[in-house]
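FORM 7B: Structural annotation worksheet

SECTION A. Query
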Amino acid sequence: MKKKILCSAAALALLGQSVFSFGWPVKNLDTEKMVPSFARNRKNKFNTSLVFPNAEKALAADNGKIIAVITEHQNDGDWFESPLGNAAVISHNDDLISVYANLDAASALSLQQKFQVTAGQELGDISNSAWNESAQSGSMEFQIADTKAKTFINPLILMPRSIKPSRIYLDGITIENQFGRVYNLATLRSVPAGQYTLYKKRQANISPHKVKVYVNGTELEKISKEVLKWQDGKILIVGNKNYTSESFYPSDENELLGHVLLPHGVNTITITASDILENSVTANFMTSGY
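SECTION B. Predicted structure
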């Protein structure tokens, strides 16, 4: 059952720190089978959760206090719909909250009697009360939020870097003009000078954590999936502009890399994409503007 909850997230003050302040929120985690899900397209919205398929037990990721318990049959909050089902909300320092969703009913009921929790404390069993990635098993839905900044934070940047993300490929790179005409950069030799939107082919198991786009050595776009912004009833990725899920994922095939201005003359377009571990890949394309 779909739920509503009042929460946002992104500890902006913590983003530059190298200390990982949160632990994994599930028991017996197999990091090799994890697929980074934060900011991926999900039911035409950005996914604000880190999803743990086939998880069995939820654990408190840090010390804190339980400030809310949500059940799948209640309708709490008024910000946005979320696939939480039965969920617990824990407050931490620095205006952070963590959300543990898709708990079973008995676990949610027992948490209503608790107040303070410690890092690693068992919160209960994971069930099928929320929207699921798999019909055969439950998935742990985990969020970290900064209620003051009104942003969602990618939980992976605050956790131990023990995952092994798939390799990023910069394939199927295209540019699209304001009239919807699409050009393949791999074969493009010349194009009218002007403003273009840059896309890459989407991969099944990974999406770039950070992207930078340069034209002739000048940085024209910088997109990061460290946080998602809540503004005017929408969840946004922040680059040089604020991007909605519809503009960032315009189709099942493409995802946005940014916007570029191609001047007259020979242009070199450089794209650098990196994963959560800062493993990066770079692609260069040359085309002339006329």
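SECTION C. Observations
The longest strand covers residues 265-274. The longest helix spans residues 105-111.

SECTION D. Sign-off
Analyst initials: ____
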